[in-house]
Design goal:
Arc Repressor Mutant, subunit A; alpha+beta; binds zinc ion; 30% helix; two-stranded antiparallel ribbon; single chain; 2 domains
Length: 185
């Protein structure tokens, strides 16, 4: 999959508009994402139906295309940070080396999902998510953590808007638990 602009056809100005007003500057100069943060600690937003990591979107808006196979790392180790001057293009191993040198190695929880991209789901997993959500026992955030995806992605799946062929089951009895859809396209 090509991984340049978050969505082909989105210009830098489009991306900046989506990011505007959704971060807060910290005393350290980080621009901390105030929207949804996934279980791995990265800010996420939805652009045209795809869940995108906010720091990647910020990097692309500031610098243009990301070369295939490379990831956007944080100088500041603050995964919620979307300040382009704190972001640099690197590799996973470089990211780990840098984190070790700063004594801040992040260990992904149980190895579920991937620390730098959203886990791809099988249709069966998507259906499991829809079924589990319909039981009312799990929040979208719970399911996102369990399957290694953003809450926003879980929301798409349970609404039948994910592209997966899932049977949408109405969740009975309770309101939707604290769902805030960020940047819905
Ligand atoms: Zn920062």
């Amino acid at each position: 999959m090509s991984d340049g602009l978050p969505v082909p056809g989105d210009s830098s100005a489009d991306i900046l508009r989506r990011l505007a007003g959704r971060w807060r500057e910290t005393p350290a100069g980080c621009w901390e994402w105030t929207g949804y943060v996934n279980p791995q600690g990265y800010g996420c937003l939805i652009i045209k139906g795809r869940s995108i990591r906010a720091h990647r979107a910020a990097y692309v808006a500031a610098n243009g295309q990301i070369t295939d196979g490379r990831q956007v790392n944080h100088h500041c180790d603050n995964r919620r940070c979307v300040n382009p001057s704190h972001l640099y293009l690197g590799t996973q191993s470089q990211n780990i080396r840098d984190a070790i040198s700063r004594n801040r190695l992040y260990v992904p929880d149980g190895g579920r999902g991937s620390s730098h991209s959203q886990a791809a789901l099988t249709a069966e997993q998507a259906n499991d998510i829809a079924r589990l959500y319909a039981t009312g026992k799990y929040t979208q955030a719970d399911l996102g953590a369990r399957f290694g995806i953003c809450q926003a992605r879980v929301s798409q799946i349970v609404r039948g808007a994910s592209g997966y062929d899932v049977e949408v089951v109405t969740r009975a009895g309770r309101g939707r638990p604290g769902l805030t859809l960020v940047g819905a396209a």
